[in-house]
Each structure stands twice: as structure tokens, then as C-alpha cells.
Specification:
The protein is elongated and about 95 Å long. The protein is of the alpha+beta class. The strands form 4 sheets. Strands 12-13-14-15-21-20-19-18-17 form a 9-stranded antiparallel β-sheet. It is built from 7 helices and 21 strands.
Length: 374
């Protein structure tokens, strides 16, 4: 029996992608391996009279529901229910693995919904979603379609989870029509669109905010001589002297630049830039008017983040030590904030104020200046 277990494990494609064709190929391999297993029950005697033509066959790894009482071929399998780690499915997943294996490259962020769509695809018509309760994710489901001899077939792959561990894997087939498939996809897309509107940020693999990002209009902006910034932004419309020897302010159409003297060099340097114009690009191309998800997607985000109020960490140290990223939600107001340490040892902040789902303004400054009110 050990050899059979090894066979079922090895026949997996070990790919996380899922579609109807992959599900069907796996079922063919599964049916071939099934010929060597001895059923534990008499399917003829345990069949359900209410389900004529369906037979539940028990094996040591779980059960198979088929249209015949004896070892079925792939076309005769209606559902596979795996309860042990002997069998690896078409996505390379086994019972006993964790939530990450079930999700693949997807992630389930904070959500008020019990159903969270993970992905949709119009090619071959398919989608995946997770079922969420108070204890976290308790189920993940992948749905895909493939054209077979008898018409369109729906393949539903389900992972049942308890405490973040897969306890059962089910693959179910059912007849379907193109209209049913398209309706299902449309529903999943509508749910996903609504979820994305509610989310502040989506998980990504972008680098964390760093000193190399302290740029305006494609060049370094903090701690540099004022002439280098003027060369990129042009001459200011107005220059104001700040009270109590706090430096000067250069005013542009939709922007302000705060200057101060570097006591060590005697140079006048840039201490901060505040922007409300879409014509001026900030770190990594951040601009006024960007949707919040696009702006947050420029920098590292470790998990999907949904607005719930308070401080929500996007990346980095939860203690607030640079480098980090966070979203601060207060009522209807939202602020994206990123921090990093500069070459001189000071902490620099990038802050983007969000209104109506888009960036209304952004600023780049030293933390000491921002706390004092730029």
C-alpha cells in the first residue's frame, strides 16, 4: 500500500495553477491509480435510494462518488473526497498542509464579508474564493470549466480547513451550460470589484519605502541644495520667509517647498515638499489623483488591508520604527504614511492624504519637521 501512496503523491503536476483541463487530466491519473486500491465497502449495499445511479465507494484515503458500484474510470467519477495525506491533488496540495498551500499566490485580507473572491479569469471561465468565519478561513474553492464529450463540465476543487490546516480535499464534477458558467463568473467579478473598492491596499511584492525613494520629479528632494530642486521644478511663483528663523518657503502652483540652512555647510537645503498638483511626481511616480490602491501598490504591502479605523500596518515594523508603512483611518479620513531613515540618520516621511478614494495631496519631509507642523 505504501507504493500506491507514493504513486498518488508523485502523479501530481505540482503546479498551483488550476483550470478544467488540469482537473480532468488529474482525474484520469487518479482513476488509473485507483485500480490498485481495494474498496472498504460494498457500494451496492450502501447506495442511497434517493440518489439513483450514484454509488459511494470507501477507500482508506477517503471516498469516491461514482456512477458505477465498482472501480470507476475518470468519466464515471462524480466526486472525490480525500481525508488523508496519501493523495496529492492537481495543484500539488495534500491534506495536512496549511492555508498558504490552499491559497497559492493569493491572500485573504481583512474583510467584513464571509465570501472573499481571490481571483477571476475570463479565459476558460473560472474563479476562486475563500469562506471566512470568526476563526479565519475555513474553506477555499476553485471553479473551472472544460468541454468534454458530454458537453461543458464544471470542476469544483474545495479545501476544508480547521485552524489553518487542510483537513479534506474535494473535487466535484457537474454538467453545466455556457450561460451558467458566464453567470457564475460575472457574480465572482462583481464581488471582487466591490471588495477591491473597499480595500485600502492589496498585498504585493514591492520593495519597502527607502532613502532612494526620497525624490520629486525624478531627482533627490530632501537634504539637497535648493538649486538642484529648482532646476527640476522651475522658479517659484513666490518666496516667503518663515517666522522665528525657521527658513523660507517656495510657493508653486499646487506645491510648497520648505527650506532651511545646513549649519554644518552653510547651504540652504530642502527640508520638505508638499504637493496638491497632479503635474508634480513624487516617490516612485506617486501623483495627486491616483486611486488609493494604485498609490499603496507603489510600496510594500504585506497583506490586503481594509479600512476599519485606527492604524493599519502595510509593511515594516509594527512598532513604528523606520522603515515602515501604515494607513491611518479616522472616520472618513485616510492617510497613507511611509517612513525610512536617511543617510544623515534622520527619519523621513512620505504622507499621502486620501479623499474620495484618490490621492488629494502628498508630502515628503523629515519627521521632526512634520511633527512640528510643516
Amino acid at each position: 500500500m505504501c507504493a500506491l501512496a507514493a504513486l498518488l503523491v508523485c502523479m501530481s503536476a505540482r503546479a498551483l495553477a488550476y483550470d478544467g483541463a488540469a482537473a480532468w487530466r488529474w482525474m484520469e491519473q487518479f482513476a488509473q491509480a485507483l485500480e490498485a486500491f481495494v474498496p472498504l465497502n460494498d457500494a451496492e449495499q450502501t447506495s442511497d435510494p434517493a440518489r439513483a445511479g450514484q454509488y459511494l465507494i470507501e477507500y482508506e484515503f477517503g471516498t469516491v462518488l461514482a456512477s458505477v458500484p465498482e472501480t470507476p474510470v475518470a468519466q464515471e467519477i462524480l466526486e472525490i473526497d480525500v481525508r488523508t495525506g496519501q493523495v496529492t491533488d492537481c495543484r500539488g496540495v495534500r491534506v495536512g498542509m496549511g492555508l498558504e498551500a490552499a491559497l497559492g499566490d493569493a491572500a485573504v485580507g481583512a474583510s467584513d464579508s464571509a465570501l472573499v473572491v481571490l481571483s477571476t479569469q475570463e479565459a476558460d471561465c473560472g474563479w476562486s474564493w475563500a469562506y471566512v468565519g470568526e476563526g479565519g478561513v475555513y474553506g477555499v474553492e476553485y471553479i473551472a470549466y472544460a468541454e468534454r464529450e458530454r458537453g461543458l463540465t464544471e470542476y469544483t476543487l474545495t479545501y476544508v480547513l480547521e485552524d489553518g490546516v487542510i483537513t479534506a480535499i474535494r473535487l466535484k464534477t457537474a454538467g453545466a451550460t455556457p450561460a451558467q458558467a458566464q453567470d457564475g463568473l460575472k457574480t465572482a467579478q462583481e464581488i471582487q470589484e466591490k471588495q477591491n473598492r473597499e480595500r485600502i491596499a492589496l498585498r504585493n511584492g514591492e520593495p519597502v519605502f527607502s532613502r532612494s525613494d526620497l525624490q520629486v520629479q525624478g531627482g533627490a528632494a530632501l537634504g539637497v541644495p535648493v538649486a538642484s530642486l529648482i532646476a527640476r521644478m522651475g522658479e517659484p511663483q513666490e518666496v516667503q520667509t518663515l517666522p522665528q528663523a525657521q527658513g523660507r518657503l517656495l510657493l508653486y502652483d499646487g506645491a510648497a517647498v520648505r527650506l532651511a540652512f545646513n549649519e554644518a555647510t552653510g547651504e540652504e537645503i530642502v527640508r520638505g515638499v508638499s504637493v496638491r498638483s497632479a503635474a508634480i511626481a513624487g516617490p516612485r511616480g506617486l501623483t495627486v489623483g491616483m486611486p488609493v490602491q494604485t498609490a499603496a501598490g507603489l510600496f510594500a504591502c504585506e497583506a490586503d488591508v481594509t479600512a476599519r479605523g485606527g492604524t493599519l500596518y502595510l509593511a515594516g515594523e509594527a512598532e513604528g520604527e523606520a522603515p515602515y508603512g501604515e494607513a491611518v483611518v479616522s472616520g472618513t479620513e485616510l492617510l497613507l504614511r511611509y517612513a525610512c531613515e536617511t543617510d544623515g540618520g534622520e527619519v523621513a516621511l512620505l504622507e499621502a492624504g486620501i479623499a474620495d478614494g484618490t490621492v488629494a495631496y502628498w508630502s515628503l519631509s523629515y519627521e521632526a519637521d512634520a511633527q512640528g507642523g510643516m
